[in-house]
Structures are given as structure tokens and as C-alpha cells.
Amino acid sequence: MTSNIYxxxxxxxxxxxxxxxxxxxEDGQATVVDLxxxxxxxxxxxSQVETLKAGDRVLTxxxxxxxxxxxxxxxxxxxxxxxxxxxxxxxxxxxxQSVRLQAGENWIEVHADGRIELDGQQxxxxxEGRMRLQGxxxxxx
Length: 141
Prior knowledge:
By secondary structure, this protein is mostly beta strands. Among the domains are: 13-72, CATH 2.40.50.140; 83-119, no CATH class. Helices cover 0% and strands 46% of the residues. The protein has no helices and 10 strands. It has strands spanning 17-26, 29-35, 38-45, 57-63, 66-72, 83-87, 90-94, 98-103, 106-111, 116-119. The strands form 3 sheets. It has a 5-stranded mixed β-barrel with strand order 1-2-3-5-4. Strands 8-9-10 form a 3-stranded antiparallel sheet, with no helix packed on it. The chain starts with 16 loop residues before the first strand and ends in a 22-residue tail after the last strand.
């Protein structure tokens, strides 16, 4: 019987997690990082790692197959990422200013001050029952 267990660490596990600086990027993924003056090729990224750029600081883990980028560290003045979670079968996206969904040139944006904006080539509304449009003033064209 063959084993599907692979060795993750070549030394003590505490020696393998490290903060590195991204040096080279291809298609938003780090290809080379600087780890304390040593250039290390990157063999993979966790699925949650966002698009990277040169100069980003990342948390890496050295495995038997190479360096894996596990996440990007925030810059000193950078705000935390917007909250994104599933609640009772609904996706909750929360941001302090606004949330925008965009596909091509078309978008819908919900602002914290109560405004909702739509911009699209064609906007279609379909309803099985009553469709209601209510506001203090409704402008058409």
C-alpha cells in the first residue's frame, strides 16, 4: 500500500512560517518573494489570497514542495477588509461607505447614506404579483 502523506516541513515547524516581501508578480500572484535577503520562488497561494503587487508583505509557509503564500498583510494605514459572511442563507456584504456590484460598465451601488444607484444598458423588472415604485418624487426621463 502506498502512502499519500507528504512531508510539509524540512526543519522545525516554527522555522517555516515567515513574513516576506513580494518581488515579482504574474497575473496578480507572487512568483518570487524576498525572505530576509533570500529570493524564494513561490509554488502556490491559498485560495483566499487577494491580488498581489510588488512590494506587498505576505505571510508564507515553506513546504517540501516550496513556498506557499497564505495571506497579505495590511499596510499601516490600510483599513480592514469589508465584512463578508453568510447569514441564514443570505450573503452579507458590509462596508463603511458603499457596496458596489459591477459587471463590465454596468453597476448597482448601495450607499451608507441611503442612496441606491443603478447604471446599466437595460434594466428589466419582472414580478408575479404587484410591482410597486414608491417615493416622495418619481421622475421619468
